[in-house]
Design brief:
Chain A is mainly beta. Chain A contains two helices and 35 strands. In chain B, strands 1-2-5-8-11-14-17-20-23-26-29-32-35 form a 13-stranded parallel sheet, with helices on one face. Classes of the chains: A mainly beta, B mainly beta.
Chain lengths: ~325, ~325
């Protein structure tokens, strides 16, 4: 209890102090770059010649809107808090972190690139990357694994714009990605993988999302669980998830060129949910398509739904092409 | 506390998520066990594998990395002639050429192992590149496995192992590019990978279930994908120039092919032994025989594939599959 509480409640003061420290230099230079390295020292100024050691120190010393570069492979600490706009870039190196990384700055644009977060903690409150508040967050080429909570979590009434690209979230205790936000939030996921998480692969309780070229595999809950708002899914695979491959409750989902295989239920629509499917493959599930009373599943009649113990449960409605 | 969000049902799920978020910090004292060990071409196995005193061989690095922790390869080099893993570990070589002159063996039923960025070369006489004797899950990412006398990546566990292969090349091995023999609950997921010029099958899948997406299986001596009795889905995948069949399913297997290509193989797609193939939106050209359906086997087609330019386009009987 002690440690987890400290982590939670020290995050905000650190973030605020970072804001205060950088407020005076904001705008002084168009392009500010700071550096961390395995051979750095936190008493340094985080310059190229005198890099800092820990990611948190590098973040604190990077002016808002600036860039922080990880110079070499190494372990750059555990917890980190981000309270300003920043780009953190680790290219061609193994930049390991214990996490969690907390982002808490309502107007900030934060880009995280090339970080490897390895949680190794069973604490269900420890998410890998947690967005408390932000204008926009990009997560690129990151690997997030072994957290007790979600790999990536945005649980907020604010409206962040979250982009996840070429990243992996695996073996976390809860969801691979949890996106529960205000009504103006947006989520884009492409070319990513969500594997063997303890709850959903992607748990989206947000207003608008697109998932492209993504593999959602072997999660203990549903592959993609979507409630409310609308979601588009293309070139995506949901497989070997214990629950549904795609679960749509009270929202709208459009699936194209996607696959559901080997799940409990391939594609399920409940409540007032609407799903549209085209050119997709649904095989080897216990039930292929499941449509509850009151929900709607519209199909372009060009899908392969075959080889499930039950191919279709409920009523499927044809959708004409235009 | 019960922090897990239910996997079914909708009412209150947001509240459950928020509850987890708010209460989780009060739940228990969970110590972070974040440990990283290092190897380097300039290291020494007498060191403790810290960043400032890295070890040299992969095996020593593995031995000194606590279970569940991470091992980083700091620079390019030769990290030994092979290694054995018997615990959960994440090995990461990013932006470097981390060469290993031998195979990696994984043997622990409960282990989750991540191998990232390793280059395994069996030219020194190694039999198997990555040999999974037992594991809960293995993630092979951005690795290259070549020139072993046996199988490139072998999961011959008879257990319900979960194997994830992404961004990987297995080539020029004496036997199969990848061999998968699991229990009924075994699962194999392959994306964005290549299986080239292996001496037997590109992929040899004998049990469990598999998903293969965006993968190229090329110029293997026998079959591109040889599937015996398993269930697979194949999408956006190419089987070309293999000595025997591009895709072969037998012994009661099921394969669903979508948006995939078979070209220049002896047979493009072949089903026999009461197996089922479902075919949609694919291209089958320039094979000896395009589609080959033995008596007792089934090939269900959506009627929207291009099957032409083969010496014999269709051998056997096709069955239409209505869209839904």
């Amino acid at each position: 209890m002690r440690k987890a509480s400290i982590v939670r409640f020290t995050a905000i003061p650190i973030a605020l102090s970072a804001l205060a420290a950088t407020a005076t230099v904001r705008g002084a230079q168009a392009h500010e770059v700071r550096f961390v390295a395995s051979y750095g020292n936190n008493h340094n100024l985080c310059t190229r010649e005198a890099p800092c050691r820990l990611l948190q120190r590098g973040i604190n010393r990077t002016p808002a809107g600036g860039e922080l570069i990880v110079l070499d492979s190494g372990d750059f600490g555990e917890v980190a808090s981000i309270g300003q706009s920043i780009t953190i870039s680790a290219i061609g190196v193994s930049a390991a972190l214990g996490g969690p990384i907390t982002i808490n700055a309502a107007d900030a644009t934060v880009r995280l690139r090339g970080l490897r977060l390895n949680g190794a903690s069973a604490d269900p409150a420890a998410h890998g990357i947690e967005i408390v508040a932000a204008a926009a967050v990009s997560i690129e080429d990151c690997e997030i694994q072994g957290f007790g909570g979600a790999g990536i979590a945005s649980i907020t009434t604010a409206d962040p714009n979250l982009s996840v690209s070429a990243s992996v979230s695996r073996n976390n205790g809860l969801d691979g990605l949890l996106f529960a936000t205000g009504s103006g939030a947006r989520l884009a996921v492409d070319t990513s993988r969500f594997e063997r998480n303890g709850n959903m692969g992607l748990y989206i309780v947000g207003p608008a999302a697109v998932i492209a070229r993504t593999v959602v595999s072997g999660n203990a809950g549903h592959g993609i669980d979507h409630a409310y708002g609308s979601i588009n899914v293309v070139w995506t695979t949901a497989e070997h998830n214990s629950g549904y491959g795609y679960f749509i409750a009270d929202g709208e989902a459009t699936l194209e060129h996607s696959a559901a295989r080997g799940n409990g239920i391939g594609i399920g629509v409940q409540g007032s949910g609407i799903a549209r499917i085209s050119r997709s493959v649904v095989t080897n599930n216990v039930t292929g398509l499941s449509v509850s009373a009151g929900a709607s599943l519209r199909t372009r009649v060009n899908n392969v739904v075959s080889g499930n113990a039950t191919d279709v449960a409920g009523v499927v409605t044809p959708l004409g092409g235009i | 506390m019960s922090a897990r969000i239910g996997t079914t049902g909708n009412v209150g799920r947001t509240a459950a998520a928020l509850g987890c978020f708010l209460l989780g910090g009060l739940s228990a004292d969970f110590a972070l066990a974040h440990t990283v060990r290092y190897i380097s071409a300039t290291g020494s196995d007498g060191n403790n594998c810290s960043q400032v005193a890295p070890c040299l061989s992969l095996q020593r690095g593995i031995d000194r990395t606590p279970a569940g922790s991470e091992l980083i390869v700091l620079d390019s080099g030769d990290f030994g002639s092979g290694a054995s893993i018997n615990k959960s570990i994440s090995i990461s070589a990013v932006g470097v050429s981390a060469s290993l002159g031998g195979g990696i063996t994984i043997d622990n039923a409960d282990a989750t192992v991540v191998l990232r960025g390793l280059r395994l070369n069996g030219a020194g006489g190694g039999a198997t590149g990555i040999g999974i004797l037992n594991a809960a899950a293995v993630h092979v990412v951005d690795c290259e496995v070549q020139d072993f006398t046996g199988v490139g990546i072998s999961a011959n566990t008879q257990t319900d192992v979960k194997l994830f292969v992404s961004g990987v090349v297995s080539r020029n091995n004496g036997f199969d590019g990848l061999l998968f023999i699991s229990g009924a609950g075994g699962r194999l997921t392959i994306d964005n990978s290549r299986f080239e010029r292996n001496g037997r099958e590109g992929l040899n899948i004998k049990s469990g279930e598999a998903r293969i997406v965006r993968t190229v299986i090329s110029a293997n001596a026998n079959r591109g994908i040889n599937q015996l009795g398993a269930k697979t889905n194949v999408t956006l995948t190419t089987a070309v120039h293999n000595g025997l069949d591009g895709y072969h399913v037998s012994i009661g297997g099921e394969m669903t092919l979508e948006q995939s290509v078979a070209r220049g193989n002896d047979r493009g797609i072949r089903t026999q032994g009461s197996s089922i193939v479902r075919l949609s939106d694919s291209v089958v050209t320039n094979n000896g025989t395009g589609l080959s359906v033995a008596a007792g086997a089934t090939l269900l087609t959506r009627g929207n594939s291009t099957v032409t330019g083969n010496i014999t386009d269709v051998s056997g009987v096709l069955t239409p599959l209505a869209g839904i």
